[in-house]
What we know:
The protein is an all-alpha fold. It is about 60% helix and about 0% strand. The protein is built from 3 helices and no strands. The chain has helices spanning about 10-20, 25-45, 55-60.
Amino acid sequence: xxxxxxxxxxxxxxxxxxxxxxxxxxxxxxxxxxxxxxxxxxxxxxxxxxxxxxxxxxxxxxxx
Length: 64
């Protein structure tokens, strides 16, 4: 999808330096992927202590 947006030139330049990407497109796409990943991790963290697990950890460790 083609989208035209104005991005702070210093911000995109710094992002390109730290990521090593040679294009603005690649840099922006990585940023969007990171936003999605962080959001998904946040949702997973909210489940901590709310799920139960049934199984035998010792038996699983012995399976090859």
